[in-house]
């Protein structure tokens, strides 16, 4: 049994930077990490990847050979990967024994709420390799400064959650830059907790582009609230506390906190309901060393 993360999100949300920073953080707290690049358009990787889809197929070759654009090319690549899942499985088999896995997926959002190829790839790997994966869905935090874009991010998050059917954590990335495109209309917890969305209607009406779609926007907000599934956690990938809190949430969602534990159902329940401070105490070397010093080695 192996544990890991499926890192997804729109282009520009910070997936590659996230995989780089998260892999370094996890190594510092004692885990062996393998990053798997499944984005055939990502040709400038800041991290050392254990498996690279470009060894199987390249987006540039697909676009040239089949006269496809980047979106069509990515759909083709995912379809090709699904049909050649044995190649990926053979690459992962040596890693699942003792590595924590980070899957860096493409940023084309259609792959995760319209097309089924990416989901089929994930589900086949889970079944064949006995993986415990959490989907980490990154959304650029600056979208909160625009009510229309924020509603779009909510819809995308909800659609992705329902489509993938995995343990799922939505993340507002780049939280340190959240007001770089304008001041927020509400406190941050309004956006992270997805509170009463009717408060957005006034601000949407101030924008002539969105005011004419007022009825549609109201209906969409009601759909989001009726499902009551979407909320966000925040992330500044360069802040140790922010990354650490996210790691703890992910480890609860995919069951990593139970790894290697033998006990009764009552003991498991106590761990699941307990405080999220277990992680740092598992690794003795961190008790005598400052994480601030360790994280000086991180570069972004």
Automatic annotation (TrEMBL):
Species the sequence originates in: Vitis vinifera (Grape)
Lineage top rank: taxon: Eukaryota
GO terms, molecular function: GTP binding; GTPase activity
Quaternary structure (record): Binds to RNA polymerase II (RNAPII).
Record carries keyword Manganese: no
InterPro entries: Gpn, Gpn2, P-loop_NTPase
UniProt protein name: GPN-loop GTPase 2
One Pfam match: ATP_bind_1
């Amino acid at each position: 049994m192996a544990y890991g993360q499926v890192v997804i999100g729109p282009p520009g949300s910070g997936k590659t930077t996230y995989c780089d920073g998260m892999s370094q953080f996890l190594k510092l707290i004692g885990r062996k990490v393998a990053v798997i690049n499944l984005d055939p358009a990502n040709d400038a990787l800041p991290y050392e990847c254990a498996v690279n889809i470009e060894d199987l197929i390249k987006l540039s070759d697909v676009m040239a050979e089949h006269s496809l654009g980047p979106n069509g090319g990515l759909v083709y690549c995912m379809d090709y990967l699904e049909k050649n899942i044995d190649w990926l499985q053979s690459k992962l088999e040596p890693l699942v024994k003792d590595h924590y896995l980070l899957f860096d997926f493409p940023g084309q959002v259609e792959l995760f709420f319209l097309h089924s190829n990416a989901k089929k790839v994930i589900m086949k790997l889970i079944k064949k390799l006995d993986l415990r994966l959490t989907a980490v869905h990154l959304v650029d935090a600056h979208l909160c400064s625009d009510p229309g874009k924020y509603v779009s991010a909510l819809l995308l998050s909800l659609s992705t959650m329902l489509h993938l059917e995995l343990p799922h954590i939505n993340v507002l990335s780049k939280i340190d830059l959240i007001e770089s495109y304008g001041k927020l209309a509400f406190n941050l917890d309004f956006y992270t907790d997805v509170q009463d969305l009717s408060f957005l209607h006034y601000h949407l009406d101030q924008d002539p582009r969105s005011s004419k779609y007022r009825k549609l926007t109201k209906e969409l907000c009601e759909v989001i609230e009726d499902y009551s599934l979407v909320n966000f956690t925040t992330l500044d990938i360069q802040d140790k506390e922010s990354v650490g809190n996210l790691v703890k949430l992910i480890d609860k969602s995919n069951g990593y906190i139970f790894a290697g534990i033998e006990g009764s159902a009552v003991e498991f329940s106590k761990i699941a309901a307990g405080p999220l401070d277990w992680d740092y105490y598992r690794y003795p070397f961190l008790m005598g060393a400052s994480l601030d010093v360790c994280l000086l080695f991180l570069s972004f």
